Every structure is written in C-alpha cells, then in structure tokens.
Amino acid sequence: MQPSETSPKLSEIIRAFESGDIERANTLFEAAGGDQFAFQNGFDPLGQVLAVMPSDHWRRNEAAFCSWVVYLCKLGQAARASGHLNDPGLEFEKTVRFTIVELLVAIHLGDPIDAADIERWIYLERTLPISDPLTSGLYYNAMLAILVRMGRLSEARSFGARAIFAFKAAQHAHLEHFIHLHLADLSINEGHLRRGRRHLYSAKTCLEKSGEAHGNEEQLGEIISLVLDYETGNFAHIPARGTELRTSLIEGDSWAEIFNQLARITTLSLYFTAGRQAALSELAEFQVGYAQRHGRHSDVLALLEIEIDRLDHSLGGAEQAIARLDPDNLRGPIGSILLGGITAALGRQNAALTHVAGPRAALNATLAEAAQLSGQARRRTIQQAFLLAVRESHVAPFVENRETLSGLASQLTASGFVRGHMQTGRMVRKVFRTVEHSYWVPERLRNLGLTHKQLRVLTALQSGATNKEIGRLLGLSEATVKFHLTKLYRATGVRKRGELIEITMGI
Known about the structure:
The chain is mostly helical.
C-alpha cells in the first residue's frame, strides 16, 4: 500500500528527526502510519527513518518501538526483537499496538505458546479498533500462524478468513498474499492439494496486484510450490533449491512452520535421491539455520531425524529420543504427522497427538492398516488407499510408506482394479514408478552389483531384524529374504551376518 498524497513525505519526517524537533517528528511519523509505517510505506523507507531517530527513542515512543521491533523481525533478528519486548526501560504506556507486535514476534520466534497467552490474545479481538482494518488484519494474521502451531487448525482457518476480509477492506493486497500462503501450507498439510493450489494462485495474484516486494516474497511462494511438488511425487529437483531458499528464510521473512516445511521436503527428497548421509547432513544445516533465525533448535527437525530412522527401519532408541522433545513444540501439522507415523511404526498410541484431519491423514491411516496385513487383505487395503489418493494426486505418503507396497506392483498395475479407470491407472503406475526410483544405492554397493532390493534387505538387517522380521517389514517371503542375503554374501565376499553388517555399516 502506498501512502496517500496527504501523508507526510519521508523527507519531512527525516528532517524533523535530524533537526531535533522530536515532537513534530513523532506527529509526522504517526500521520504516516506510526506502528504501521512499514506496511503503508515499505521497509526501506522505515529503515531510513529509524536511522535518524535518537538511538533510544524506541524506549519512549510506542509507535517507534513497534516499528523497530517489526523491522528487526524482517531482518531475521527475532530473538533480539523479543528481548526488546521485555526491556525494563520502556517508558510509554502499552496499548493494543504493543500486544500485536508481541504476537508478530511470537510468529517469528517459534517458541512454545502458553495456553494462558492464547486465551489472552483471543480476548484481544474485542478491543480492536473497528475503523482500522489493517490493525485487525495484522492481528488475525498472527493468530492464524500461532493457532496452526498449536494444532488448533479449524480455528486457524477461521482467523485466516477474517484476515483476508480485513486486508481487503484495508486495500492491502501485499499482506493478503501472506494469508493465502499460510492457508495454502495448511491445506497441503491436511492433504487438500487442490485447495492449496488455489490459495497459492491467489497469493501470486495478490502479490502482482500489490506491485510490492520487500524481500523474499517470491521465495516464500516457491517453497509452497515445491511442497506441492513433493506431495505429488516430483521431488528430484527440490534439493537443488534447498540451500538458497533456506538462506532466504534466515535473512528475510520466515515463520517456524514454513522453515520446518522446507526442511522436511528438502531432507526427505535428499534421502530418496542421495541417501541417508546426505539427508542428515542437510538436516544439520537446517537445524543451524533454524537456531540462527528463530533463536532456538527445532524439535520438529529433531523428529525429522527420527523419521529418517523409521525409513531405514532403525528405530532403536527412538522412544527415548522422542521423550526428550517438548510435545508442545510438536502440536503443529508437520510435527503431528511425523510423530504419528513414527509412533505407529513403534506400535504405540500417542494420546497427545493433534489430529490433523483430511485426505492425507486418511491415506496414512489406510497405509498403516495395510502394513499390518498380508496377502489379499493387504492388497485390498492398498487399493482403498489408491482410491483415497487419486482425487488429490497424492504420491508422497506412498513413498514414505513404500515397504507396504512391496511385491504388489505387477498385481495392481495389471489387475481389473485399474482396467477401465484411466485416472486411477495413471496414479497407480506413477506411484510404483516413483517408489522404484526412491531407493538410493550407494556407489560402492552399485559397483558390487547390488540392486535396491538387496539394499532394502541389508538396511533391515543392519537394524538387527531376523529373516522373518525382514520379510514382514518388506512384504517378502522368508525364502526371498534368504535369496537376497546369499546375493549379498557373494557380492561382498563374506559368509556371516555379523561380517556383512560390519563391512557395509556406514556405506
């Protein structure tokens, strides 16, 4: 949003501060937006004004304080901004403007949210100025992000709708575009991919309409687009963008959920295309970046490391690792989805899990059920999963539960299940093709002539599983497991299980 013709010019405000006429400078600054200066004039002009303010002016003037804190968050210094909120030297009387800035800092930090704070912030809606839709929109925006982190998703969506209405009333398409990004991410996590695409399209339209760009807006939209790619099984290109996009979140706009989301799709895409070590190395970089941007380590990223263990069938010690994490930090959609899959693999129920309703949850539940079955019962349940997936074109849940599909490719792609159903048939073939390419074989093992099927057996063997357990995990008969082990012994020149594990561990 551009300032109106009657708003004070930037040069007037700067001259007033430089001349020492602080009272006039404050009046002009308030007339130009005050605490909303950046949203009405841009962050570069705000930076120019802040540069000429007295160094401690923010302690005496609420509008200057709010602008300074928002500016710090924009620069990726949310931890520093949080320290200012608790500064004992603040001399102004705090109003609703201070509380909204407090909310905006909470978004950027990613700290656990106290239930009492949530209720206090929800009550704040009653005190919002009716004639100021921009303030209302900023409040609804913050509550949307915070409620998503708390796992209160239906409430979050309601606040998102109110934020869109408020920003439309304020004629602020630039801020409206952020709401559509939030809602796109939420929709995708629930598995409503088509709804997510619509919100992403609306976000791009709003950004173009606004004609504004203050930082990494395009990169934020690209991240949501890549999440859609990942969910539909197109992930080979994602790792190449991970580093640049991570940097854009560290240096520009970010919130905990989108940082975790980018880490999830980048790390898992690397796991499927380059193996465990590459994925863990990238995950470590994301953890460092998260701490730099949000002032603490991410429990969701710690959980993501356990998810890699689940994919590798090596969950020994997982329960102890989960117990060290703060459950309040895992209430959001990503933490809940990851934790649900891990606890299911452990054969445990977690009553503290936030239920993320939607197509993805239903699909994951069906695949988890199929994993406990065998023979025709497993095949029929997998068919049900495909019927759930075809509407939204889900592929990622199948790849993340790929062992459940073991041995079913030829049965399903050539069966009456897909005959006469073109869309379902395409879906089934794409899933099995993607799963086939999701098994990365290290170069050393490839040189020995090992296939991804032997690698799967070897990975399960390294977790300490017996032949019978390996067969159950991979959907193979015990005889087939023995056949693959014989191939592994011959390829590596060893004769015993212990020697095979020792010579291949760490490859």
